């Protein structure tokens, strides 16, 4: 556990981002070039940070460098409050009830600070050294399908943002999955709960699948061109094209070695089985 001092130099922008608050402990995390500082005002808050803030990335003691974002959780009057810098993001009776809001803040901040990588709203898994991309916005059924692919032996990359470099390789984005499991509210889950590992290195794309979930639907897909797949990647990026030089070229390289399909799916178990068969056929 990394302990912060209350009387850290306030001029440094550092160690205690909130110098007038009592600090229990905290740590720094660097995620894809974004420097995050997590400050806990209660042991339950520290537990949330340790478990849910990019758990596979190393923690360091707060230094003198000013972070890109300071996040803290305070406790008082029967409520925990989540802050990003000095803005209140969410309140809840239990610290763990703030996890979904915390993950969304982390996503927004990290993606907003990407420099060498470009993000796409997509689920992604690794299978036999190659990546499957499932582009799609929230509520598209990406997370439930990713979770089932993990249960069937795939390695976890992401259920929300695929990060693509200038060579078209996809990097793991190691945050917890957010699953609905038939409920309106999301709950966090770890790859380990699906008996899966988290990816450790970038890999090339083998298959791009634009598949829409239909509760009473059946598996039905057709090949599409790489150009159509590229268009969908561009439609599902949070970046502004004019502010992201090189993004189109990065996505073109990601698509260049991939087979691309679009269609519909029903049950995630059957869809995952068929997708992994397709990945094997593409090897």
UniProtKB/TrEMBL annotation:
Top-level lineage group:
Bacteria
> Which taxonomic lineage is given here?
Bacteria, Pseudomonadati, Acidobacteriota, Terriglobia, Terriglobales
Q: Name the SUPFAM superfamilies on file.
A: PEP carboxykinase-like (SSF53795)
Indicate what this protein is called per its UniProt record: HPr kinase
């Amino acid at each position: 556990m990394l302990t912060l001092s209350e009387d850290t130099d306030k001029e440094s922008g550092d160690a205690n981002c909130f110098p007038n608050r009592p600090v229990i402990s905290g740590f720094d995390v660097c995620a894809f070039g974004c420097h995050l500082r997590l400050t806990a005002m209660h042991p339950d808050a520290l537990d949330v940070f340790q478990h849910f803030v990019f758990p596979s990335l190393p923690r360091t003691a707060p230094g003198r460098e000013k972070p890109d974002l300071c996040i803290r959780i305070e406790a008082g009057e029967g409520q925990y409050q989540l802050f990003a810098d000095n803005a209140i993001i969410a309140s809840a009776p239990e610290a763990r009830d703030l996890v979904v809001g915390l993950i969304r803040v982390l996503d927004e901040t990290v993606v907003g600070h990407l420099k060498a990588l470009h993000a796409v709203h997509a689920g992604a898994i690794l299978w036999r050294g190659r990546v499957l991309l499932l582009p799609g916005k929230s509520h598209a059924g990406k997370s439930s399908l990713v979770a089932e692919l993990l249960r069937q032996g795939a390695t976890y990359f992401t259920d929300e943002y695929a990060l693509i470099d200038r060579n078209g390789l996809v990097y793991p984005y190691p945050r917890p999955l957010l699953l609905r499991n038939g409920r309106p509210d999301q709950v966090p889950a770890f790859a380990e709960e699906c008996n899966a590992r988290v990816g450790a290195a970038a890999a090339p794309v083998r298959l791009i699948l634009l598949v829409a979930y239909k509760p009473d639907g059946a598996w039905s897909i057709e090949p599409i061109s790489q150009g159509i797949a590229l268009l969908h990647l561009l439609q599902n990026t949070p970046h502004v094209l004019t502010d992201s030089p090189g993004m189109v070229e990065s996505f073109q390289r990601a698509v260049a070695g991939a087979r691309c399909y679009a269609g519909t799916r029903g049950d995630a178990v059957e869809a995952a089985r068929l997708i992994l068969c397709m990945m094997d056929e593409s090897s």
